[in-house]
Amino acid sequence: MLRMGAEPDKQCPFSTAAGCGVYDDRPWACRMYPVGMAIPPARAGVEPEPVYFLFEDDFCRGHAEPREWTVDSWRDSQGVPARESAEAGFRDNRLAPVFIGGRTLDPKRMEMFFTACYDLDSFRAFVFESTFLQRFSLDAANVASIRTDDEALLRFAFRWLRFALFGEPTMTVRKDT
Question: Each residue of 34-69: pLDDT tens digit?
Fold first, then answer.
């Protein structure tokens, strides 16, 4: 969650007098707005289809525009499909069974989650400036890509979280460690 500005407006910290200060790099949720998405609980062997809905609020100026949109045309116009895989990685971690019923992580695991998802510089340092690469088996191409490519590092971070937080076999521990 972003820490919003002071009362009464609670403005986004990226909002400037000229508009969104990170518009080209805005996150998935901002690109989707005012369209919301919910994913029903999974059933055995059935991948759930997302359900879309419209937020109707007083401050969104887009509601006054005459143009009508379908969900697909809105998503395409906002560049959402290009960011779907990153959103899916985050969503898959956030929807893990450990969070069912509103449970949360202990402070150490919560810090790990936020570092991996939101502080890629620190996560990269964790991978490359610790014994991480000696403890886990990673192919050279993957190591090279996560060293310089933030998107590859984020995908790797999601994989690491599935292993470290939820015990899923997404990483291979070296046998000689």
Answer: 998 888 877 777 878 889 999 888 777 777 888 889
Q: Mapping DSSP to helix (H, G, I), strand (E, B) and coil, where does residue 38 land?
A: strand
CA distance 20 to 114: 23
Binned at pLDDT 50, 70 and 90, residue 174 comes out as very high
- What gap in Å lies between CA 77 and CA 171, rounded to an integer? 36
- Helices marked H in the chain — which ranges? 28-32, 71-77, 84-94, 107-118, 120-128, 132-135, 140-148, 150-166
CB of 130 within 8 A of CB of 123?
no
DSSP label of 128: H
- Per-residue pLDDT, averaged over 113-141, amounts to 94
Do the beta carbons of residue 86 and residue 156 sit within 8 Å? Answer: no
Tens digits of per-residue pLDDT, 65-89?
Answer: 888 899 999 999 999 998 887 788 8
Of all helices (H) and strands (E), which one includes residue 52? Answer: strand 51-54
